[in-house]
Give the backbone structure.
Amino acid sequence: MNGKPPRPSQCELCGRAVADLTQHHLIPRRLHRRKRFRKGFSREELEERICWVCRPCHNMIHHVRSEQQLGLHHNTLETLLAIPELAEFTRWLSSKPPGFVPKKRHRRR
């Protein structure tokens, strides 16, 4: 890989032009030291596999799936967008203005 992807001008999930984008590690950093992930991915891939998302999308990613599920099954942008709850949320959020912040949801149980 050629390093981290450059910061885009809009959220890679909802497509809104938001000034404060956050880096979402597609393989959560907490999992980088686990043997399963060290064997399956190079060190560079673990560090560089990220996407740029707005805060509401980032919060929703972590609301709908655990870090383990994200690292094992949803570690690409395409597989993230295949999560039905996330796809529905990003479609809904895409029509909102850039400064819009949804009401907080309860934590996943």
